[in-house]
Design a protein that fits this description.
By secondary structure, this protein is of the alpha/beta class.
């Protein structure tokens, strides 16, 4: 063991707690049973089998109110793995559940035996026929697929609110639809073909002309069974009419029985049945979608009404006017949305009875847009709208920023409302549909039902399609609260079916919480047909048992998860998973959601339990050390949960007092530290990479990998000893070269000015001269200490830089230009919580500008671009995302190159200062997909705006990245 390995017990929950009823049992503390682990490892390879108790716990939760701990997690890489797992399950009598994004709201992504991760190795998009069709692998998010289609002016039909995180495999398996899909643009209608693996291991590609012939040879009993069921259904006129009626409105409860009416052959029937099958019929390995035009002319309004029924009554009017989307939000939803960035603060004062409609028209051209707006104006004229707070406008707009803000509030429904629920309560998301003409009536009945059962639920939904969602919060650890929920569900389901002949699941699919009510909605005959279909396709019942079909009338009450309180910053988390795609470590160790899930399990455990001990042992590396600390999870989370900040706090808690003192001493004497670091880099440049790699490797083993960086050959030589000379009197801004640019020089392949020289020269060319203070040495943005959780050192440097900057800028009269995006973020925002009251006032007077913004907004308009390269690829850093500066990077790159490419898979490189040197595997994993895009073709230049991120991308791609300002200096050189 390394000498300075941190003590895992430092992170033991320090609060008194009672063991939760759903805690992981002590007998499971050692993880996967040995025989199961060994057999699967021999079958697939040990690297594909996750067996630690921490692995099982982090996969046990999804976005639903349920929690089931699997026996083992398998990370499948290809169809051969899938077939091998299914064969093993048949032979051993085991059960299999497939999990991709884990955004399912009804427990479809959870299993109690073998859980198969089909996200990690299953991403990919291939645009076909100029965008008319698209091939999408099942682990690809909807957002990623649409990003590939956008340049072709096309878009997918399904558009679920969780598009940022949900994957196409899950979208198809649940027939998830969203705001605009309705019954005509969903997966059932838009799926051109798919490839799937049946429980037997047989692979079917529905696009293959010989697919039926091959299936008949491989599965004659299956084919015969399907055709017998088809004949039986078609011979029953009453049942046929019932099926058509049920799917005339949105419905994902049970199986798509209309597949037997729409399909003529076994393969065609299976193609329909796989949609909405929720993983119970097979694994969806590949999809091909027909796409739709991306109408870019958008007119949108957020209209406020005095009540929910009043808003619902206006829906048919907008449907008739041609609106593509009509979304409903009640007062609770609107008020909770104030936690979402950009939502007007005065929404918090909206009356509870208030409701709103988000109405959107999309058109291919201006003429059509104007026609829609004219029709909308006619509808508005006849409505009695209200404006309870000042920000309400009740008017249509074309402004993209305003429109995006409306949609951001709407799409955050589950997470924003869930985040504001009482601490310690479990969140249930219900989803039902009624005939659109009866929506207003259904709203009134729903409000009455909630009141009678003591629920103050939030309601929103796709009103254009008669589809409503509502959220209930209750304490799953309190039997009385569970009974209250059960009573509500019994009455709600009867109301929906018997009063409205509605769908108990419109787009979230049956799952565990509606399976007991399937027969109530469909009747005995149709339900028994579904059981027979399952038996024909999966006779051994190995796939996803109890997720669609369950004869236990109390099944929806089994496995409800408790939500123990955790650290305040993470406590609002509802485990939705929106944060996961953006997390740099999501393919390596854990995600932000999983970090919180693991912490909650520690809170469920009795103090000192074997399960707690093993979770703590794994948490250090899996959660804390491999967190890049970039906090992009905060941007993806609709309620702004910053798991990166929590991990930094945990780093602080693991530090010994001695480590904290040393870090504070380094901050106090940073002038000497900076000089020593530069000398060390200069010496390293002479010693050679191989020797340094061996020395640092030995030190990492002996001391601690998370303390000693690994020497990487991509690390550049030293910066010049002296910064460029500048003059204060004529300066229009103060230029602060970040310490990283005072220590490290330009890329080895770069021949030209250093970054500080380039900034000074560009500013002079634009007649906007800058001044570099003589005493910048020894100062820093404090990010070094902040990212590692050294609180005292962070406090020292944060206050020092603010005091210095205030003096340099003459009390804030001049802007402070910073040449590294992470340092800009640090000085502008991250230092604030660590400042004294006096220095916080000084900070308020500062104007901190990133060098990208300075160059794009203040210099570029004054510069003459004289030469451009043919192509450039850019790497937007995570700090740019926080600052909103990505567009400035692209604009500067466009001044330097005729073609500028932003990789579709661009994300945080996870180099994170020196994190990529402490854990090179983190950067390798985080950049894998972006690097594949970058290296797929040649570019003349590779551009970014942060030295350490550039080093990380150098290592990831084998290409030489440099600051875009160096390219701009060359492009504008006289």
């Amino acid at each position: 063991m390394p000498l300075l390995e941190p003590n895992p017990q430092a992170l033991r929950p320090g609060v008194e707690r009672s063991p939760a009823p759903d805690r992981v049992a002590e007998v499971q503390s050692r993880g996967t049973p040995r025989r199961l682990r060994e057999e699967l490892s021999e079958l697939l390879g040990a690297g594909k089998v996750l067996s630690k108790i921490s692995d099982l716990v982090r996969y046990a939760s999804d976005a639903s109110p349920y929690r089931f701990v699997p026996q083992v997690v398998v990370v499948a890489e290809d169809i051969d793995d899938i077939s091998a797992i299914l064969s093993y399950a048949h032979g051993k009598g085991r059960e299999v559940v497939f999990r991709a994004a884990g955004t399912s709201l009804n427990g479809q992504a959870q299993g109690e035996d073998i859980l198969v991760d089909v996200r990690r190795h299953w991403a990919g998009v291939e645009v076909l026929d100029g965008g008319a069709r698209v091939r999408i692998r099942p682990g690809t998010t909807v957002v990623r697929a649409n990003a590939a289609l956008a340049p072709h002016g096309r878009v997918l039909g399904p558009d679920p609110a969780s598009a940022i995180a949900c994957t196409l495999g899950g979208v198809v398996a649940n027939n998830a639809s969203g705001m605009t899909a309705g019954t005509t643009r969903n997966s059932y209608r838009m799926l051109a073909s798919l490839t799937f693996v049946l429980p037997s291991g047989t692979v079917v590609d529905t696009a293959d002309p010989a697919a039926d012939e091959e299936l008949a040879r491989a599965e004659p009993g299956l084919c015969a069974g399907l055709m017998e069921l088809k004949a039986e259904i078609e011979a029953d006129a009453e049942l046929t009419a019932r099926i058509r009626s049920k799917f005339a409105i949105k419905n994902t409860n049970g199986y798509r029985l209309d597949a037997f009416l729409d399909g003529a052959t076994p393969v065609e029937i299976l193609r329909g049945l796989m949609v909405g099958s929720q993983g119970t019929f097979g694994f969806i390995a590949d999809t091909v979608f027909d796409t739709l035009p991306l109408d870019r002319k958008v007119s949108t309004a957020l209209l406020f009404f005095p009540s929910l029924p009043a808003a619902a009554a206006a829906v048919p009017l907008f449907n008739e006017a041609g609106a593509l989307a009509v979304e409903l939000m009640d007062g609770n939803t609107l008020r909770a949305s104030v936690s979402v960035a950009g939502v007007p603060a005065d929404w918090a004062q909206l009356p509870k009875e208030t409701a709103a409609l988000l109405v959107e028209f999309r058109a291919p051209d201006t003429a059509a847009q104007e026609a829609y707006e004219h029709a909308a104006a006619g509808v508005l004229a006849g409505l009695d709208l209200v404006a309870p707070v000042a920000s309400v406008e009740n008017a249509f707009t074309r402004d993209p920023k305003t429109v995006n803000g409306y949609w951001k509030a709407r799409k955050a429904f589950v997470t924003a409302v869930g985040g504001s629920r009482p601490s310690g309560t479990t969140l249930i998301t219900e989803d039902f549909a009624v005939p659109p003409a009866r929506l207003a009536e259904a709203c009134a009945e729903l409000l009455d039902l909630q009141a009678r059962h003591g629920f103050d639920a939030a309601v929103a939904g796709h009103a254009a399609h008669g589809n409503l969602h509502f959220l209930l919060a209750f304490d799953a650890a309190a039997p009385a609260d569970v009974e209250r929920y059960a009573a509500f569900m019994d009455e709600f389901c009867k109301l929906t079916v018997e009063r409205f002949d509605g769908s108990l699941k419109a787009e979230h699919a049956t799952g565990r919480n509606i399976a007991p009510f399937l027969e109530l909605e469909w009747g005995t005959k149709a339900t028994e047909l579904m059981w027979r279909i399952k038996e024909v396709i999966d006779p051994d019942g190995i796939l996803a048992p109890r997720i669609v079909l369950d004869r236990d009338p109390q099944a929806h009450l089994r496995g409800l998860k408790t939500i123990p309180k955790v650290e305040l910053i993470a406590d609002p988390c509802i485990e939705c998973g929106f944060c996961e795609p953006t997390c740099p470590s999501h393919d390596l160790t854990t995600t932000p959601r999983q970090r919180i899930v693991l912490r909650r399990e520690m809170m469920r455990q009795p103090d000192g339990s074997p399960v707690e001990a093993r979770l703590l042992e794994a948490y250090g590396y899996d959660a804390i050390d491999t967190c890049a600390g970039d906090s992009t999870c905060k941007l993806a989370c609709p309620v702004g949960i910053d798991t990166g900040a929590l991990m930094k706090e945990f780093r602080h808690e693991r530090h010994s007092p001695r480590e904290e003192r040393i870090a504070a001493l380094a901050a106090t004497n940073f002038r000497a530290v900076e000089a020593s670091a530069r000398l060390a880099v200069a010496a390293a440049d002479k010693i050679g990479d191989r020797v340094l790699a061996k020395v640092t490797g030995a030190a990492r083993k002996a001391i601690r990998p998370d303390l000693i960086p690994e020497w990487l050959p991509e690390i550049p030589g030293p910066a010049a000893r002296r910064l460029p000379r500048t003059h204060r009197p004529a300066a229009t801004a103060v230029y602060y070269p970040a310490c990283v640019n005072r220590i490290f020089g330009a890329p080895d392949a770069h021949h030209g000015p250093s970054l500080p020289e380039a900034v000074v020269t560009l500013s002079a060319r634009a007649a906007r001269p800058v001044w570099i203070p003589d005493d910048v040495t020894g100062t820093c943005c404090a990010t070094i200490w902040h990212s590692k959780g050294y609180r005292q050192g962070n406090t020292i440097m944060a206050n020092r830089i603010v005091e210095a900057a205030w003096g340099w800028t003459a009390g804030g009269k001049l802007p402070l230009v910073v040449d590294a995006s992470s340092c800009t973020l640090g000085i502008a925002h991250e230092v604030v919580p660590y400042l004294t009251d006096d220095n916080r006032q000084l900070h308020d007077e500062l104007t901190v500008i990133d060098s990208l913004v300075w160059a794009a907004d203040h210099l570029l308009p004054r510069l003459d671009v004289r030469r451009r390269v043919t192509s450039a690829v850019v790497h937007p850093t995570c700090s740019m995302h926080h600052l909103g500066d990505e567009e400035h990077l692209t604009r500067l790159a466009e001044a330097c190159a005729e073609e500028v490419v932003v990789p579709t898979d661009a994300g945080c490189c996870a180099f994170a200062g020196d994190r990529g040197m402490l854990h090179p595997e983190l950067t390798a994993s985080a950049t894998a997909r972006e690097a594949a895009e970058v290296t797929a073709r040649p570019f003349d230049v590779h551009l970014s705006a942060n030295r350490m991120c550039e080093i990380g991308m150098d290592r990831a791609t084998g290409r030489s990245y440099q600051s875009v300002l160096l390219s701009l200096a060359r492009a504008t050189r006289p």
